[in-house]
Write a structure and sequence with these properties.
Chain lengths: 394, 528
């Protein structure tokens, strides 16, 4: 089969890191990612199926890995070499289309009884990611045994598969996984009726989070900082009431909340801030514009950052992470699987329009560079299109 | 004998014309045969013995008892004076206000008056710094009054410091500085740079609060002031005069002192900026080239400091004192005598070079909103009769229009530019949707009262100031401006004057008439 494989090669890793530091996405040219002919992954056990990816998205975490910026925190829960790609819509052997829920939790790992998190349905919080019947891997796309979406074949456990409704396009289906992340993040932000919510960043995750906040929370006003014109247009279209440029957000929040200020620190601020960037600057800004006892939710993967947490201590700010998905409790108390909510949101908000460009595996360098510069180039989600790959259709 | 202002028809032999471009300038060739240039008059003769003239005005006022007759022991005397926004550029020391205030204080001392307050009548402008106050009133007055809290900036947001005097028949609330309102005599010291200044506006605006000012600083008033330099057709003027009647009827006794200036605007070595280009000497040309070239290589901050440090050799052409309206009639005549130039007919395109300075960026940055206000608010309105440009015509401004704001002086401007103009540039919509929230914003109020910030509502007034011009013109083009900033203003950017004229062709055709307002020194067109 044809696949993009990420190997553990320290020198290549350094080269990728250096290249990616100069030009984002350039790690694809010089790093440990290669296009290879591989044997299809074997089925790890009962309940596993071979599937053939149709579309597979390029996520921010993939870019971070390729450019060598991912945290070493992940080392114990990743196994090499792996085939990236966890935003996947695929065909099963019996011709059905499925979306993969990529977290490799206890059920997929054959662990019984399951861990407390999995028992609660909080798949993203699985406590056994490096244990069980398969090799370590927090998700499909980071595990050496399962393969990933950037290939013509991969394997997935039946617990990971969600049938794609008839009439839903592949482009819509490939948006379900990132949308599930956004839905979870929006609900993690614990927004109350009428709250002012500020969203920092309007890449794929930022835009989807805005849509999820509007659809699944009682947020009052949603304001967002977006760097590029197309992002601003989409942010407004997906539910943001006011969209500004990144440097303008503190002043916008100050004025909307009638806050005073001590230098860059607002005295009041937004009720909730959702950071979809995950940099030192964005988290610092989030802490400076959230009201005392407000909540900052980190959706963008932060890696290593330097922060002054005095404001967090002094103003009793809640700082929460939001990773993946599982089961959500909605405002009316009902419990729903995040993926089910994501399917709804993708269809209602027509999120397939966020898929801007597709590439073949052979064009992976261009694809990854496009994804790394998506905002600047007026794009949102870049995907690999496997549907016409020869190896897949033999 | 100074030569009057005049209109030059541009022909093939006309040398390139000076256009201001903020902290710089350029020479531009206007199309021959259909362009004309409105040049200001040369400076009128100055009064030689200023102190004597001032004393004479105080002792022989118009429609009023002499000042000494109004002063008595035990009285409350308040002297209010125009703030840092006048004159432009700032005046060489001693400032006229210092000379007048010292003369008034001499008479007050002679009359045994010892309860004297001196107030900078800044309305909703930023507070003046100590250095600025010293420059205006002089060290002697400053040191005698400021340390004892008797010389200070007007605070329009001090609830205890304002007095409500009544309402005009039009429902306009009149609220002015309490100390001024409750004094036995208010002496107002004015410098009249343009015809709009002075009269009842000095008190009814300069010492007022937002509650009061909002009644005439609004879109309707501005759109019905054609122009606000023409008192007979200015709703701004009418509103202030109605308020003045309320002030007078409330028993506030005012002794108004007004002065006018000639057009000696630029100190050495920049006098050539006020000359007609064909009269430039070799030295003038060399100075122009040297200045223009060297300014290009100087960092923004340094260039700004060079220009903002300029002190004008303004000379006084008249001083009159007494009853407000009677005094102001004479003042206005004197302003017109210096600035008014007869112009025959309107034009398709009006070009205006925007200089580095307007009333609201003294020691500060000419931000994009102020560029708009200077062009469409001030210079567009420098007319009597009809606007220089025909309805539906094009105004071309030249200015770098940087996306840059003074963070201390203009905090609400930044938010206005980022948040309000990103939503809409329609003055009426802006007024309805945003004005109140900015005017009542606690943070802006705090900065206005304790720092050196313009009031939160001030950028709105700048925008309204240009609303008549915006409504009148078919297109506004800014040459050489930051493209993003110009677009945010709702205007069209152009890189060169030729490009701008090309762009204007869509609106006014291929062979439009063009008029350039050669300004500053200030010139006002009397359009027939």
């Amino acid at each position: 089969m044809k696949a993009l494989q990420f190997e553990r090669k320290p020198l290549k890793y350094v080269a990728g890191y250096l290249a990616g530091s100069i030009v984002p996405g350039r790690g694809a040219r010089y790093g440990p990612l290669r296009l290879a002919d591989l044997d299809p992954p074997e089925l790890p056990g009962p309940g596993w199926h071979t599937i053939r990816p149709r579309l597979a998205g390029i996520c921010g975490s993939d870019l971070s890995t390729i450019d060598g910026h991912a945290s070493r925190y992940f080392e114990p829960i990743v196994s090499f070499p792996f085939v990236p790609g966890h935003e996947v819509v695929a065909d099963t052997d019996d011709g059905a289309r499925v979306v993969v829920e990529p977290v490799l939790g206890c059920v997929a790992r054959g662990i019984d009884p399951v861990c407390p998190s999995c028992a609660r349905g909080d798949l993203g919080g699985c406590e056994r990611l490096a244990f069980g019947a398969i090799e370590p891997g927090l998700q499909t796309g980071f595990c050496c045994e399962t393969g990933g979406g950037w290939s013509t074949f991969m394997v997935a456990h039946e617990s990971q598969l969600h049938a794609v409704p008839d009439g839903m396009s592949d482009e819509a289906a490939v948006m379900v996984e990132p949308t599930a992340c956004a839905v979870h993040a929006a609900l993690r932000a614990r927004v109350d009726e009428g709250d002012l919510v500020a969203v920092i960043g309007a890449g794929t995750l930022g835009l989807l989070t805005i849509a999820a906040l509007r659809r699944f929370t009682p947020a009052g006003r949603i304001v967002a900082a977006a760097k590029h014109p197309e992002q601003r247009r989409l942010a407004t279209d997906l539910g943001a009431d006011t969209v500004c440029e990144p440097g303008e957000l503190p002043r916008l929040v100050r004025r909307l909340t009638g806050s005073l200020a001590y230098r860059d620190q607002l005295t009041g601020g937004a009720d909730a801030v959702v950071d979809c960037v995950g940099s030192d600057e964005s988290i610092t800004e989030a802490l400076s514009i959230v009201r005392p006892r407000g909540r900052v939710t980190l959706v963008g993967m932060p890696a290593s950052v330097r922060l002054n947490l005095t404001t967090l201590w002094h103003r009793e700010t809640e700082l929460a992470g939001a990773y993946a998905y599982g089961t959500e409790t909605l405002a009316d108390g009902t419990r729903r699987r995040t993926f089910d909510l994501a399917f709804e949101l993708v269809q209602e908000a027509r999120l397939e329009r966020l898929v801007t460009a597709s590439y073949r595996l052979a064009e992976h360098r261009e694809a990854i560079e496009h994804a790394a510069a998506a905002g600047r180039r007026g794009a949102v989600k870049i995907v690999f299109d496997l549907r016409s790959e020869k190896e897949r259709n033999r | 004998m100074p030569r009057p202002g005049f209109v030059l028809d541009v022909d093939r032999n006309t040398p390139p014309t000076l256009f201001w471009r903020g902290d710089g300038f350029s020479l531009e060739k206007l199309p021959a045969g259909r362009s004309r240039i409105v040049y200001p008059a040369e400076a009128l003769p100055a009064i030689k013995d200023i102190d004597t003239a001032i004393r004479e005005a105080l002792l022989h006022p118009v429609d009023s008892d002499p000042l000494p007759a109004l002063l008595f022991p035990g009285m409350k005397l308040t002297i209010a004076f125009d703030d840092v926004s006048l004159p432009l550029p700032k005046m060489r020391r001693p400032d006229l206000r210092q000379r007048i205030i010292e003369a008034v204080l001499d008479l007050a001392a002679a009359a045994g008056v010892d309860d004297v307050h001196i107030i900078a009548a800044l309305a909703l402008h930023r507070r003046m710094t100590e250095a600025e106050l010293r420059h205006v009133v002089g060290d002697r007055v400053y040191d005698a009054f400021a340390p004892r809290g008797l010389l200070y900036n007007h605070d329009a947001e001090d609830p205890e410091g304002m007095a409500f005097l009544g309402t005009t028949p039009h429902g306009e609330e009149v609220e002015i500085n309490r100390r001024a309102a409750e004094s036995d005599l208010l002496v107002y010291v004015n410098i009249n740079l343009v015809a709009m200044d002075g009269g009842w506006k000095s008190t009814a605006t300069g010492l007022a609060s937002y509650r009061s000012v909002r009644h005439h600083h609004n879109v309707d008033t501005m759109r019905h002031s054609k122009s606000f330099m023409d008192q007979h057709r200015s709703e701004l003027h009418s509103s202030n005069w109605r308020m003045g009647k309320v002030i007078r009827d409330a028993g506030v006794k005012i002794f108004q002192i007004e002065t006018t200036l000639n057009t000696d605007t630029f100190p050495s070595p920049f006098e050539f900026l006020a000359k007609r280009e064909w009269e430039w000497t070799a030295r003038d040309r060399a100075l122009y080239v040297a200045t223009e070239k060297s300014l290009r290589f100087v960092p923004n901050r340094v260039r700004r400091n060079i220009f903002q440090g300029m002190e004008a050799p303004h000379n006084m052409t008249s001083v009159q004192a007494g009853e407000v309206e009677a005094v102001h009639r004479i003042t206005t005549e004197n302003v017109y005598r210096q600035q008014l130039v007869p112009v025959e007919g309107q034009t398709d395109i009006l070009t205006i070079g925007i200089p580095y300075l307007c009333p609201y960026n003294v020691h500060s940055i000419m931000n994009p909103i102020l560029v708009m206000c200077t062009g469409l608010g001030y210079f567009f309105n420098m007319y009597r009769g009809k606007p220089l440009v025909r309805e539906g015509g094009v105004v071309i401004l030249t200015h770098p229009t940087p996306w840059e704001f003074h963070p201390v002086h203009h905090p609400s401007y930044i938010d206005f530019f980022e948040q309000v103009l990103a939503d809409t540039t329609d003055p009426k919509e802006i007024e309805a949707k945003y004005e109140k929230s900015f005017a009542e914003d606690e943070w802006y109020r705090h900065l206005y009262r304790t720092s050196y910030a313009y009031h939160g509502v001030h950028p709105f007034y700048m925008w309204y100031w240009g609303s008549h011009g915006m409504q009148h013109c078919g297109r506004v083009i800014i040459v050489g401006g930051d493209v993003k900033a110009v677009r945010r203003l709702g205007f069209t950017p152009a890189s060169t004057l030729d490009d701008a004229l090309e762009l204007a062709a869509d609106v006014v055709g291929r062979q439009p008439t063009i008029t350039h307002l050669h300004n500053p020194p200030l010139v006002m067109a009397d359009v027939s």
